[in-house]
Structures are given as structure tokens and as C-alpha cells.
């Protein structure tokens, strides 16, 4: 019985993978808005309802890998060791992810990753979904900080600053790859940028670039 369920689960996952990769290929070729869910279903030889059973909305056909990272900032802070500040935990997490060339850092040039990033950037509805994910992740992080004793205002300020720092670093990394550089070449620079960004987050801007 266990083997039967395992086989069924593997088949289910494979069907989901085929739907997803087929949809992405069609979106890349024709654009997100020009492809209907029915066309995707027909291409995979399943019903439209089957597609929605795997992906509740059309946007989920593109965004579901990113959805898995929504609660990541909250988890990093929640699971940090005793004595470690939230921003220090996130610094260590982000730099470790850079060294792995994790797609979530923007420092990943795999064709599938780049295709998804470009598709999101070019499609307003997907950009709106990305902004919603970012807002939800920030809200979850703020709630975690409140659960640790921060006031609501302090938690929102801290969460906003941590998320903004992360987002700027992702933007910088993607920009360097857009310029044709390889992730391995960019890595040392990306780490320096991350260290600098989190130093500023930790110590504040102070009198940086004050006019004489």
C-alpha cells in the first residue's frame, strides 16, 4: 500500500512538473497574456480543471517556485541562535545563499531561472504578484518580531529595512548578470555589496556623504 501511494505521488508530481514546464515554454514563446490555461491543458492532454488542481491561478504557473520563499525571512529570524540579532542572522543567511548561487539572491544564470525572472519583469500581473509576495513576507517577518517583544512600529520598521536591503542586493545581482557577467565572476563583488549593505543596516547611515 505504501509503495502504491508512493508511486501515485510520484506520478502526481511528474504531472505537475510537465504542466509547469509546458506552460513556461508557451509563455516564453508567446508571452504570458497571450496563452490561455485551456491551451496549456490541451498541450499536456489534461483538462483545464486538472491544471487548476495543480496551480490554483494562471499566475501560479510562473510564480509557484517564488511562493516557496515567502516565509523565508521570517524563518531565518525565528530559527536564529541565541544572542544573534535579526539582521545578523539575515546577513549570514544571504551570504551563504550567495555562495550557493541560490536563485533567490539574484545570482543565478540558469536559463530556467533567468526566463522566469524576465517573464515576471515583462508582465504587469506577475509583477503585482511578486510585490504581493514581498509584502506578505515583510508582514510575516514583522509579526515574528512582535512575537519576540518588539512593538508593532519597531517591528514594521525593522522588517521593512531588512527586506529593502535584501531586495536591493537582488536587484544589483540581477543587473550584473544582465550585463553578461557570469555568477562566479560576480560572486566576490556580490559578497562585498552584501557585507556593506548589512553594515549600513546594522550601524546606520551616520554622517555618510554629509556635505562639507
TrEMBL record:
Gene3D superfamilies the UniProt entry points to: Tetracycline Repressor, domain 2 (1.10.357.10)
Domain HTH tetR-type: 13-73
Any one GO molecular function term: transcription cis-regulatory region binding
DNA-binding region range list: 36-55
InterPro entries named among the record's database cross-references: Homeodomain-like_sf, HTH-type_TetR-like_transc_reg, HTH_TetR
Keywords: DNA-binding, Transcription, Transcription regulation
SUPFAM superfamilies named in the record: Homeodomain-like
PANTHER family per record: HTH-TYPE TRANSCRIPTIONAL REGULATOR BETI (PTHR30055:SF234), HTH-TYPE TRANSCRIPTIONAL REGULATOR RUTR (PTHR30055)
Name of protein: AcrR family transcriptional regulator
Organism: Phytomonospora endophytica
Classification lineage: Bacteria, Bacillati, Actinomycetota, Actinomycetes, Micromonosporales
